[in-house]
What does this fold into?
Amino acid sequence: MSHPTAFRAVRGLATAVVALIAVALVLEWAGVTVRWLGYRSVSGRYEGTVSSAEYNATRDVLMPLEVGLWLLSLLVMLVVFIVLVGWMLRTQRNARTVSPVSHHLSAPWAFWGWVVPVVSLWFPPLFLHDIAKASNPQQRGTPLVPLWWIAWLTAWLTFWAGTVLTTSGISDDHDTIQTLRDSEVDSLFTFSLLRTVAALLFLAAGILLSATVLKISRAQSHWTPARS
It folds into this structure.
């Protein structure tokens, strides 16, 4: 079967998206690990099982490391977004070229659907669902898309809930660590726990999105010789 020259293979972009998602997840889980090490150091100092010198040395390493890991993971997520939008544009163009299935959204919404308030709550999965349905009309889309979006939104809600609800008024400065109340130490534990739950949800979202990208790319690879 031959198609217009506008058709372009997507395997290269798909591989890049999946690889970048994996890097972002590794960085995020490294940040979670550092967060728990920080909590253990704070609770140990509070209980008196960790010396002041040991606590200060650990704190001076873990705090900038944790911040650096989170910032780096956000930077990688930005790169994932850029490459993912490129992949979405290309796969939608391919689908419009080959498949008779209609799309709810035009090409610019591959980007704007993520950033315009309110519609950003459902435009990205709608855009991706249409591509999946057009790439394999017999299956009429894939349940991976709504599952990915639910995990993604829930992950961010959990992440920000942990930040807003549990960190206000908590200080792990070495001059005030002994004056912390039990409730504040417990709140620091809850903060670490919610970050872990958010990381689990991000992991689920990353796996589901990767599977969706690979599934669509595999379906479209049958339309044209595989090349990047």
